[in-house]
Amino acid sequence: MKVVNAIAEVLKREKIKFIIGYPVNPIIEAAAEVDIRTIIVRQERIGLHMADAVSRLSSGEDIGVFVMQHGPGAENAFGGVAQAYSESIPILVMPAGYPRKVATYYPNFNSVLNMQHVTKWAEPISMGKFLPDVMRRAFTQLRNGRGGPVLIEVPLDVFGEDIPDDFTYVPSFKSRSAPDPSDVEIAAEVLASAKNPVIYAGQGVHFAKAWGELKELAEAWNIPVTTSLEGKSAFPEDHPLSLGSGGRSIPRAVHQFLESADVILGIGCSFALTGFGVPMPRGKTIIHATLDPMDLNKDVPAAHIMVGDAQLTLSMLNEAMSRLDRTSADARENISQEITATREVWLADWMPKLTNNEAPISPYRVLWELNSIVDKANTVITHDAGSPRDQITPFWVSTTPLSYIGWGKTTQLGYGLGLAMGAKLARPEALCINVWGDAAIGFTGMDFETAVREKIPILSILFNNFSMAIELPIMPVSTEKYRSTDISGHYADMAVAFGGYGERVEDPNEIQSALKRGIEATQNGQAALLEFITDKELAMSIAQTDFKY
């Protein structure tokens, strides 16, 4: 058996469902021979984004895999690997490598050397006989601990080496760790006695599938819940105790209740300091529960810690708190009414935007209409960087786990398309949507053709305002002199040219009917792109109490 065939066999034993890649990499053909579906993209980064979503939508049970050629393919993939690293997503990346005799010197790109700082684990297969050991280490890293890309580089001269046909490979296992019981007891006492606690849930809740335990804690103790962008949908946002979620833009309730909190429990989150996340107010007692000790006291000082899997942590915390005095919880019996009142006032302030019937169309109006017509339980939605992210995150109501793919640790334009395509691979029965702008489509728009060709019927919602509007306040001179922020295109026509469904919408009265036509196209197996001609909207819901437009 050749090394390349053994790799395919390992992937089969690890129950890999898709190989996403770009030629030339011998793994593509070997995977097809063992009936692993191969998907070819137009550009490497989009394939990595697809693999990213495959891992997310299964909470890491199904590992997304991307393969590419040595040299330019590996070089071009760097951004996608870095994005998965910043979001702590487990994906297996297997680039071909230059032959061993020239693998480590100028000018050849060595993936292991160059991607060590954007991967959780990176190593080459230096000799064919070491393949089982290398793959065992790779999948163990992928399935355990903090998520992140694992890179295995296969030199071109290793693919064809022989290894025994009866080589030994046992599929990897997943192990979970629980926090120190004494830490849990202390955290329970602090949380039970808190006057105004708030729970801040992150992506770790998704990967641990701790949604039920989180809901149990919030309901038992009348504690409001918000999430990070990555954690959005970990708690149902139509629940009376939900504050909503966001990043750079947030619902008013998130700001208001965090500011008035005395204790904040961060569960399955990093509290990473980012311009696209919710800043934690100072002067609060922080209980930080995380899988990775590296997160502790990095950006937000913690008074109490619990290190372990989010589901195990919450189970232990629920048990410990069940034995404690409920006086503080009972005093918050009307907290849901306070949340509702805050939300209603905030939404009233925003209704002129959300229901705007003027042309050019308000992007908020499009999102408001979309929010009302989709089947939330059977929808997965994501956003792109910039304005689409800031416009959708506060107002989209996620009701079921893993129905929203949030991100924002780094903000590469064009990320959302691949996420939606990968989500559709993972959940073919769901309506999978990406919301992006006319800047983002310039980065990865060609891969809408991949969605058409590979029969991945996503709904792509594009806001076209013929401008990089978010840059207007910081580029006034270059815009005035050289029109530096102007961009243009007829993207619905592009979608049609690729063989998909495309429609350009300019009349606000056509928003809902156009959305329904786009959804129907996806139900008929066709990738759809709806291009809405929008205004240069700059307003977003930020942490202020008086919204002025």
Short account of what is shown:
With 549 residues, the chain is an alpha/beta fold. It has helices spanning 3-13, 26-33, 44-57, 72-86, 111-115, 131-143, 181-193, 203-208, 211-221, 252-260, 310-321, 327-331, 335-354, 363-373, 387-392, 415-426, 441-444, 448-453, 476-482, 491-497, 511-523; strands at 18-21, 37-40, 64-68, 91-97, 121-124, 150-155, 197-201, 225-227, 242-245, 263-267, 285-290, 304-307, 379-383, 404-405, 431-437, 459-464, 501-505, 528-533.
Describe the structure in your own words.
The protein has 549 residues and is an alpha/beta fold. The chain has three domains: 153 residues, Thiamin diphosphate (ThDP)-binding fold, Pyr/PP domains (Rossmann fold, 3-Layer(aba) Sandwich), CATH 3.40.50; 159 residues, 3-Layer(aba) Sandwich (Rossmann fold); 179 residues, Rossmann fold (3-Layer(aba) Sandwich). It has 21 helices and 18 strands. Helix 2 links the parallel strand 1 and strand 2. The longest helix is centred in the middle third of the chain and has 20 residues. The radius of gyration is 24 Å and the shape is globular.
